[in-house]
Design brief:
There is one protein chain. The protein has 295 residues and is an alpha/beta fold. Helices cover 45% and strands 13% of the residues. The protein contains 10 helices and 8 strands. Helix 2 links the parallel strand 4 and strand 5. The chain starts with 8 loop residues before the first strand and ends in a 5-residue tail after the last helix. Keywords: Oxidoreductase. It holds the Pfam family 3HCDH. One of its GO terms (molecular function) is oxidoreductase activity, acting on the CH-OH group of donors, NAD or NADP as acceptor. This is 3-hydroxybutyryl-CoA dehydrogenase.
Length: 295
């Protein structure tokens, strides 16, 4: 295989919900897909066309996507293992949400073959995937990966600087950081924040995005409002104590039965299945209304 050969074989390292969703996307795109798991026997709900493995395959896959636990030492150990097994043969991508890509690539040892490939949950549903390159990433590697992602019916959101959090999570955490601060200081409750997201900001952004809407509304009003509001936003650099306390107490959300909301008595699989079904309906309607992402 040469660097111009289309990607055909994909290994997903990590068999959690995210890993299975990524594997499903590639299998439905016609790739030969395997998924690496410490306990493949428990994977009874794998998507059609996906093979479970307990060890790395003998032959190097064309593309390996890492989606294991978000701990630097675990990811670096895996990348070192991939380097020892395959050298620089495969393209390797990390699905990290916020760990520094250069540090991860250093463990692999071949940064010219390394990219960030960041999916949102559920991975098989959303129509876009963040694709992030390092300064050393070759253009051929970037473009071959982008072509493969497009074969899964998703548009790669290419970013040529690997800033912490990338594009999606930086925007998301900027909003959440302010939202948690407003809840913490008693301005509003979590239900008010979610109602604003679902019924005010969300619908408008679906139609005109974030920045295009400001052009439509007029930049004069926006510029003057920014002068008045931005100085009063919460610019603290520390993680919010409300969230960190919930995490420390084991109140980690739906699966634990308690987070910001009380989930006791609800089946996590049912809740997630219902949310995914509604998201699929919404995305289908949105595509019919405004079209798909622009590449």
């Amino acid at each position: 295989m040469t660097d111009t050969t289309p990607i055909a074989t994909v290994l997903v390292a990590g068999s959690g919900t995210m890993g299975r969703g990524i594997a499903k996307s590639f299998a439905e795109g016609g790739f030969e897909v395997s998924i690496l798991s410490r306990d493949p026997a428990r994977l009874t709900d794998l998507p059609a066309g996906v093979t479970a493995l307990s060890e790395l395959p003998a032959a190097a896959p064309d593309l390996i996507i890492e989606t294991i636990i978000e701990r630097m030492e675990d990811k670096r150990a895996l990348f070192a293992r991939l380097s020892a097994a395959y050298g620089d043969a495969p393209i390797v991508g990390s699905n990290t949400s916020g760990l520094p890509l250069p540090d991860l690539a250093a463990a692999y040892g071949h940064p010219q073959r390394f990219v960030g490939i960041h999916y949102l949950q559920p991975a098989d549903v959303f129509p876009m995937v963040e694709l992030i390159c390092l300064p050393e990433t070759s253009e051929t590697v970037l473009q071959r990966t982008a072509v493969a992602i497009r074969r899964t019916a998703k548009e790669p959101l290419i970013q040529r600087k690997a800033v912490p959090g990338f594009l999606v999570n930086r925007l998301q955490h900027a909003i959440l950081h302010e939202a948690y601060h407003l809840v913490e200081t008693g301005v509003c409750d979590v239900e008010a924040v979610d109602n604003v997201a679902k019924y005010l900001l969300g619908p408008r952004m679906c139609v005109t995005g974030l920045i295009q809407q400001k052009d439509i509304g007029g930049l004069e009003t926006h510029a003057l409002a920014q002068r008045a509001i931005v100085p009063h936003l919460h610019h603290g650099a520390e993680p919010n104590p409300i969230l960190q306390t919930l995490y420390a107490e084991g109140k980690t959300g739906l699966s634990a039965g308690q987070g910001f909301y009380d989930w006791s008595g609800q089946d996590p699989k049912d809740v997630r299945r219902d949310a995914t079904a509604k998201l699929n309906q919404l995305l289908a309607y949105l595509k019919s209304l405004v079209g798909g992402p622009v590449g």
